[in-house]
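Team,

Forwarding the record for the chain on the shared tracking sheet. I've put the sequence and predicted structure together so nobody has to dig through attachments.
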Amino acid sequence: MKRVKWIICALCILFPVFLLFICGVMLIGVSDESEDGDPVHASGLGLSDKVREYAAFVGDTAAEYNIHEYEKYLLAIMMVETGGEGNDPMQSLGNSGLTEEEKTPSESIKAAVAYFAMLLQKADTLGCDLDAVIQAYNYGAGYIDYISVRGKAHTFQLSCDFASSKCGGRKVKYDNPVAIAQNGGWRYEYGNMFYVYLVKQYLESEPLPADTANAVLAEAYKYQGWKYVWGGSSPQTSFDCSGLTQWCFGQAGISLPRTAQEQYEAVQHLELEEAQPGDLVFFTKTYKTDNYITHVGIYAGNGRMFHAGNPIGFADLNTSFWKEHFVCIGRVSAPSQ
């Protein structure tokens, strides 16, 4: 009987120790896998109205430093930093010596553009890539030096290594969706190792190259007059609206999701005034469904779209029906070369 009691007591002592050991192994496993691969991030999220208010001034200031082509990166950085709010929307005046009352958006933008231009020059001299410049806006110019002797191209692993080296590996909770998807929701205490990927979410896409847009539209025009077929997605079946867009873009080397709602979620959203041939056009409540987006067409220029109506063909976007149900233009990214 004493032996049984001794065994029970031993188990009571050893079992919690065993559990702690297992939990420790699990935690080590989580931290080890956290830096594998580039983080998955959204794209085409769009800029806030506050950021767009500064677009002209950012562009003019960038032109003064001969970096006008980087305007969209500066605006995306502003979106990540503050969303355009406050007297220091670029968060560039922290070491300026100015009081909060003395800081102004114009001074913030000027300082940020000057700093970004300096980073570009440094990266060019050392042969480093643009992602290194973007990350250095957050980390400091020393990151470009760090990258320059480690392959000259930014990677997420290098970003993590740099941050870890600056803070002794200390981690803090970080509930940004990009971080949660990558490692469960943490970052190193120094800077933000996800910065490049946060900025890329807000980069405005360029219109499709003319030859690509023409190829998409030329494929679509082959089916003018064909009947609308619910669920149709190829010339063998004819098409519904999203089936037509998916097929035509696919023939030009661009992969789109299958449904109109999914296509809406995969592209950048713009106003009608910004539409270019080859953009998508989205509508809501054209029929009863739980989905927000119910119809999609391809912008053909001059206020018209080509779409799978019944029959398939052109439609004038200025008519009352389409104006009533219009949601936005969708900018599709060109395929990588």
